[in-house]
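Forgive a beginner's question, but might I ask you for the amino acids of a protein and the tokens describing how it folds?
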Amino acid sequence: MKDTSTEYFADDLIIVGEGMVDAEPVTEHGWETTLLLDFGNAIAAVRSKEDLFDTVKLFLRRLNILRGYAIRMINDDGKTMSTYVHDRTVTAPDDPLILEVAKTRYPIKDGIQDRVLNSDTPVFLMVDEEIAQGRDAGYLHFWKSVGFVKVAGMPLQTASRKWGILWLAMQEINVPLVESLCSLISIAISNIKTNEQILVLKEKLEQENQYLNEQLSNSYSAEIVGQHPAMHHVYKLISRVAGAPSSVLILGETGTGKELIARAIHQASPRNNKLMIKINCAAMPANLIESELFGHEKGAFTGAFERRIGKFEQANNSTLFLDEIGELPLELQVKLLRVIQEREFERIGGKTTIKVDVRIIAATNRNLEDEVEAGRFRADLYYRLNVFPIQLPALRERKEDLIPLANFFISRYSRQTGISVKGMTAEVARALQGYDWPGNVRELEHLIERSILLTNDNTLTAVHLPGIKNEPSVQDDAPPLTMESRERYHIIGTLKRCSGKIGGEGGAAEILDIPSTTLHSKMRRLKITKKDYK
């Protein structure tokens, strides 16, 4: 056996072929063929950016290219380029300059990147000369800071498109060999992008199936019940705005049916062939809302173990319903405004700009004008959302609809529970009409459901109106209760039924269908303490 290692010198490039064979020394051409075959086999297994990084690092080091390399990709806007993978050993990982270069989008037409992309052969740059000519790209100054004198750039492209540039910090290169490597890298990038699109479509399909199942289990047809003139006005507004792409702001007290109105608008719109996507801005911690709205990339933050598609991306060419918009934190209001204005965003931790066509319907039980005045809601976002406001009347303002609504819920929950209930007595009807319903239609629905579960007859003969008949202040000879008193008693009664539990599953906030923060606020305002419900 004899050592057949061969070395080919081309200034800074040293190509080393290693092996112990009994035959003649390996020729340069034979060594190149072996390297390309190995690289091709490795590239075939690449499915992600990290796979590409590991593979490129391994094979470029077999070329003894120890002075640095990077792949920069053309962004979706077609006008800028960003770092895709880079040699992480040329400087400290937390070096401010490399961090800046890695995250910055540089314009393609900067006199350097466009020169490389439009060339069929490698382009060699003398770093000092480019800077002397007035080129001010940040990556030039980074190259100079780490001692790169000469850098070669080669376009990465397939038959269908140009993908980006491979940069190598070296004096000379074996042009045919590196061009072949670039072709294989380009194929790998094309495969990665295709695989990413498949994963995105798969996740969208899974999420749309989830929403479809939710809609199938909750029929929204014919659920808007009401003949009061105020409701007829709402119907007219729905018909006016449904066909337009305009933003809609639905206003009304808790429990008035704002989501039903949003769904009615969506179903009557040209976007009804896709699912309406909903997010409750008050139902999750502030630090998770951004990820829920815009999505995140794998590794974007602690706990981000996989990519997540946000609600905006899911709602592309459809409708996004932002419930409880008044609860959105100020810092996220800025980002929401930008997406509404620009119709584009980036996932957390991502560099790709995602363009969307989303119709916004927002809802709140707050007075947003007061919130703007108090500095809790941005005025510019309010004006963007308040293009077409729809005010829903409280149930106490349309008592004519109360009995038809009650009969509707009796029919629904009789069917769902299997308990045959055909209607209600006159006494029950009078009791319902004598109550002011601070929880509105939702409170009525929950009351009917509970009453059906408790009844032993095929007619409702009693309803358990919360917190009123058991309170001393509601005797027949007592003065009428104020709305504030009724709301107080209603909350106290609900808290008693929940054994004082406010938030979480089975808590009073869940039963009242309001955020726990809102319930705490109401309790402070109404001076409700533990001694009232314990």
Observations:
- The mean pLDDT is 81.
